[in-house]
Amino acid sequence: MTRLPFDIRSVDETNLTNARDLLDQARGAARNFRGHELLLERLDDFARGAIEGRLAVHDDRVVGGILWSQADGDLIIEVLFVNPASRTIGIGEHLVHEALDYATERGLKRVLGRALPGDRETKNVF
């Protein structure tokens, strides 16, 4: 099996601290889309540890993240963001697979994705 150039990690206090730059990038990118207030709320929820997710880490630097919540037996992907300099190497795909595995392990019925109007890159993932 080929070794990935990044690690997928659960969110803990250390990773959350290291994710601050990525969260700031995601906030900045979100402001370009209608409805970005919901995304900003989810990023704030994540920063407080109120929703779950996984982070992609390369050389101890967080380069991507996926955040999800659960409702009515469904897993809802709230945010998927990869540092622009780290795109095209499969980070987003691996993060989505982490969410799918999480949902399967817990017997959740569906996995739903959320993309803001005009966010073609996120829509292409889903």
Biggest sheet strand order reads 1-2-3-4-5
CATH-defined superfamily: Gcn5-related N-acetyltransferase (GNAT)
Total number of beta strands: 5
Given helix and strand content, the structural type is alpha+beta
* Biggest beta sheet summary: 5 strands, mixed
CATH class: Alpha Beta
Low-pLDDT residue spans = none
Q: Describe the oligomeric state of these chains in a short phrase.
A: single chain
N- to C-terminal separation? 26 Å
Rg calc? 14 Å
> What is the CATH architecture descriptor?
3-Layer(aba) Sandwich
Total of DSSP H or I helical runs spanning 4+ residues:
5
- Write down the domain tally: 1
Please provide a written account of the structure:
This protein is an alpha+beta fold and 126 residues long. It has a single domain (7-125), classed as Aminopeptidase (3-Layer(aba) Sandwich). The protein has helices at residues 13-18, 20-30, 36-47, 91-105, 120-125; strands at 7-10, 52-58, 61-71, 74-82, 110-113. Strands 1-2-3-4-5 form a five-stranded mixed beta sheet, sandwiched between helices. The radius of gyration is 14 Å and the shape is globular.
Explain briefly what this protein structure is:
The protein is an alpha+beta fold. The protein has helices at 13-18, 20-30, 36-47, 91-105, 120-125; strands at residues 7-10, 52-58, 61-71, 74-82, 110-113. A five-stranded mixed beta sheet has the order 1-2-3-4-5, sandwiched between helices.
